[in-house]
Design a protein that fits this description.
Blueprint lengths: L1 E6 L2 E6 L3 E5 L8 E4 L2 E5 L4 E2 L8 E11 L3 E7 L4 E7 L2 E11 L10 H11 L5 H11 L7 H19 L1
Antiparallel strand pairs: 1-2, 1-5, 3-10, 4-7, 5-6, 7-10, 8-9
Length: about 160
Amino acid sequence: MFAVIKTGGKQYRVAEKDVITVDKITGAPGDLVEFAEVLVVGGDNVMVGTPTVAGASVAGEVVEQTRGAKVIAFKKRRRKNSRRKRGHRQELSVIRITEILTDGRKPTPRTQAAEAAPAEEAEPAGPPEVEAAAAAEAGASETAEAKPARKRARKPAAAKSADED
């Protein structure tokens, strides 16, 4: 499913999980934003608005607030000893589209527990030595966590041999 939204005087074709750069929208990174001016909703059945689709909205999350590249406006009047150089950087917002909503539905708020759950899964369950032994029993190659532990075990042995010389 896709939608065409209007923001900042421009139109953008978006789908879920798209990351777009638009003119600055107020909000800190992580805030939810909602675009109510939806012009077209496509998918199985296409809805075209006159001018907007009633009850449709697009929800997104602010990824970051940034600035565009510098644009130089240089004016010169020949033989008049007159020049003007002016620079400009447009303030922009990077938005990740999370949902395309129809029939007057409201965006689902993100919860702190939903964000923390994937981070907990990524953490190791135990010491690296235990994980390396379990991986060896399963026939898998060494994990990235086990390699630093193995290197730490070798360093004291290497230091002893250097002292003995």
